[in-house]
Amino acid sequence: MRIIARLTSKGQITVPKAIRLALHLADGDLVSFEVDGDAVRLRRIETAAPPARADGTPTALTEWSSAADEDAYRDL
C-alpha cells in the first residue's frame, strides 16, 4: 500500500484513514517513528490501561490523592 500525505509548515502530517485502519489507530494512541536510511516506519505503541484502585478510580488521578482529599471524599 502506498499513500501520499502532505507535510504542513509546522511539520505535521495527517495519518491517512487507510493507515489508521490498518494499524488500528484511534484518537489519543501513541505511535513511534523508526528511521532507516531515507525510510520511516510508523508503529502503534501498545499501552496498558492504568491500574485502578479497589474503588474503581484509576490511579492516574494523582492530583486528588493527598490524605486530605482521601478524607474529604471517603463518604461520597
Largest sheet, if any?
A: 2 strands, antiparallel
Radius of gyration: 20 Å
Q: In which range does the helix fraction lie?
A: 10-25%
Helical/strand content category: alpha+beta
What share of the residues does DSSP label as strand, in percent?
Answer: 15-25%
Describe the protein:
The radius of gyration is 20 Å and the shape is elongated. It has helices at 17-23, 67-73; strands at residues 31-36, 39-44. A two-stranded antiparallel sheet has the order 1-2. The chain is an alpha+beta fold. It is built from two helices and two strands.
Write the layout of secondary structure elements.
Layout: H1 17-23, E1 31-36, E2 39-44, H2 67-73
Antiparallel strand pairs: 1-2
Could you give a quick summary of the protein structure above?
This protein is an alpha+beta fold. It contains 2 helices and 2 strands, in the order αββα.
List keywords for this structure.
single chain, 76 residues, alpha+beta, two-stranded antiparallel sheet, 2 strands, 18% helix
